[in-house]
Write a structure and sequence with these properties.
Among the domains are: 39 residues, no CATH class; 110 residues, Immunoglobulins (Immunoglobulin-like, Sandwich). The chain is 18% helix and 24% strand. The chain contains two helices and seven strands. The protein has a four-stranded mixed sheet, with no helix packed on it.
């Protein structure tokens, strides 16, 4: 700005000097003062505007976002699917079905048999009690004795004369089959017996007997005799 003013003043002074010297040199052409002033003013103006332009900082570009029209569907990014977890498959191996049978220990007991399941046709027998020689009775070698049981006819037929005792297993102890010799109707009890002899050797002896019809069909509870032979 200062430089422009100096230039303008210098041009004015030159113009004044040229005007004052116009009468001293008639041979020289008269300069066109208006043209000189016009040129000087244009130069000053151009210099002034160039200076102003240099002083103004360049404009910063402003970003204007483009508005999204209303109703325009938005495109969303498709999420990446997570990996499918690996399925764990368990294969079970069948275990063989073993049946554990415990070893018997201690005192063994003979299960009580339901007499109603021991029938043969209409015949059946229920043991009520031992009448003589309970189990474990001590006898001498070759000692004779009579074993008797109290029994009930729990069948539906009469026991008649030819019904009899039959040795089935164990130690017979010289016993023989004996006949009933009487009639026992159903739901009645009676006493049946057999004559025996203790063995000559010491030890424990047990015999098993059952009742039978005239045809030899065994039925009813098993009748047991057990003794100890000791000198």
């Amino acid at each position: 700005m200062y430089h422009a003013r100096r230039t303008f003043i210098a041009l004015l002074l030159i113009g004044i000097l040229l005007t004052s010297c116009g009468g001293q040199s008639p041979a020289s052409p008269t300069p066109d003062v208006n043209a000189i002033l016009t040129s000087a003013i244009g130069t000053v103006a151009a210099s002034f505007f160039q200076t102003q332009t240099a002083l103004v900082p360049p404009a910063t570009e402003t970003f204007t976002p483009t508005p999204i029209p209303t109703g325009t569907p938005l495109t969303l990014l498709t999420p990446t699917a997570s990996p499918v977890p690996t399925q764990l498959i368990l294969i079970s191996t069948p275990v063989p079905n073993f049946t554990f049978v415990p070893s018997p220990t201690g005192t063994q007991y003979t299960p009580t048999v339901n007499p109603s399941t021991l029938g043969a046709g209409c015949n059946n027998l229920r043991l009520i009690s031992d009448e003589t020689i309970p189990a474990g009775t001590v006898l001498k070698p070759r000692e004779t004795f009579t074993k008797a049981w109290k029994v009930e006819n729990n069948g539906t037929c009469d026991w008649v004369y030819s019904y009899h005792l039959v040795f089935v297993s164990g130690d017979s102890m010289a016993g023989e089959s004996t006949r009933l010799g009487k009639v026992i109707p159903p739901k009645k009890w009676t006493r049946i017996s057999v004559d025996l002899e203790a063995p000559k050797q010491e030890g424990t002896y047990t015999g098993y007997w059952r009742f039978a019809d005239p045809d030899g069909n065994l039925f009813g509870s098993t009748l047991t005799v057990s003794i100890v032979v000791r000198k």
